[in-house]
Amino acid sequence: MSELTKEQVAEYLTHHPDFLIEQPHLLAKLELQQKEQGATSLVHIQQRQLREHNTLLKNQIESMSKHAKQNELVYRLFSQCHSQLWSNYDFNTLASNLTNIICTSPNISDCKLIKYTAQYNDLIDHRLTHSTYYLGRINQQECELLFSDKTQSAAIYLIGDSKKPVAILAFGSNDANHFEPAQDNLFVLDFVRALQLRLLELA
User: Fold this and answer.
1) Within a domain: 145
2) Is 11 among the domain residues?
3) In this predicted model, what pLDDT tens digit does every residue of 29-73 receive, in sequence order?
């Protein structure tokens, strides 16, 4: 009689899940050698796998909840920003009011709406040539140009295009990981389009 293969044993146990329960003497003796934890019973392995699976599900739920709360906050902030576009009639007042609104977010330490001048050409060439926005960490020179020394990451949006810039809208965070390239910025881009139209009217 040929020996059973591991695959055959696994298939049998899969189709007969009560086998070990009906053989308590075998279950008591069954020990599987683990590289890191030494000998442990099958029940303990199953319990550990279940805990790991539950932890994974919990982390996924927490992540989804966190993103939902962040999206809600961003939506509220930029709804307020949209209202400012039509209640301010000069650039400086609009810039100041936008800063006051955006900086109520606990993760954003600074907000700047800046009229374009030639001093921002290097920034545009480095960060905004292939895309009209950049999200992520910034270097010391960029930090000094836009924010304070404590700023670690930023979201930078070009108002206009790289050949004919109008302004720069930038958000800074002291958290190096707050702004990252994969971040969803749909609400912000919608606001940036409206802001560009308004600034052209105010020019």
Assistant:
1) yes
2) no
3) 555 444 445 555 666 777 777 778 778 878 777 767 666 677 787
Q: Which amino acid is at 178?
A: H
For 134, the domain range is 90-202
User: Is residue 16 assigned to a domain?
Assistant: no
In the prediction, which pLDDT does 9 show? Answer: 83
- Cα distance between residue 1 and residue 123, in whole Å: 76
**Residue 197 burial (C-beta neighbours within 10 Å; 0-12, 13-18, 19+):** exposed
- Total count of domains within the chain: 1
* AA identity, residue 59: N
**Helical spans, DSSP H, in the chain:** 6-15, 24-29, 42-85, 91-102, 121-127, 140-146, 186-202
User: From residue 123, how far is each of 62, 99, 134, 179 by CA, in Å?
Assistant: 36, 21, 10, 17
Spatial separation of the C-alpha atoms in residues 188 and 19, rounded to whole Å: 58
Would 64 be classed as within a structural domain?
no
How confident is the model at residue 41, as a pLDDT?
Answer: 63
C-beta of residue 98 within 8 angstroms of C-beta of residue 112: no
On whether the CB atoms of residues 94 and 113 are closer than 8 A, the answer is: yes
CATH number, position 198: 3.30.450.40
- Amino acid (one-letter) located at 68: A
Per-residue pLDDT reduced to its tens digit, 93-103: 999 999 999 99
